[in-house]
Amino acid sequence: PNVTMPSYSIAKSVTSAFIGILVRDGLIHVHDPAPVPEWHHDPSDPRADITIEHMLHMATGMEWNDNFSLGSDIFRIVASSDAAAYAAAQQPSHPASEHFDYNTGTSVLLARIVREAVGGSSREMREFMGHELFDRIGMDPVRTEFDGAGTWLGGWSADSTARSFARFGLLYARGGHWDGQQVLPAEWIEYTSTPSPANPEYGAHWWL
Hints:
By secondary structure, this protein is an all-alpha fold. The chain contains eight helices and two strands; from the N terminus they run αααααααββα. α1 runs parallel beside α5.
């Protein structure tokens, strides 16, 4: 029970929880264009129309190779010193919202959006993660890796124990409620678990 195990893509659902906290606090809105600067330099860039909701649904329209083989996107992003920049440089091959493509880079971009919303530094991000989620539900320890640019690798890095992962799942089973506190809005839990238009088996960064 005390062994810290790899989270792998459980981290994506943790990323979703942090987005839900920002939505709760009015810092972001899921239907707004995603605040990814690389997508907004050119007004004609189709990526400027990608919303946070498209990202949560893995429906940005950008193809991604998530098979861990030499030269794949997941291989390259793990090796990158700026994972979010690598993800942001991808080009769409489908209109946003229409095509589901499981994309770890999207999760890292969402993690960068969270970091910038809570202050911009990796220290502020770590404090936010602990104060708003991990400490409140007793997830301890949680190992979180950051890249050279200071971005939490929210696509795969929230390593913890089986009991801590169970606490995270129980938070959702309880509608976001924990020990007399509403940690996540019940509306966010419902939103997260609603099938997305692009894939009925996937919600907002959660497999259903």
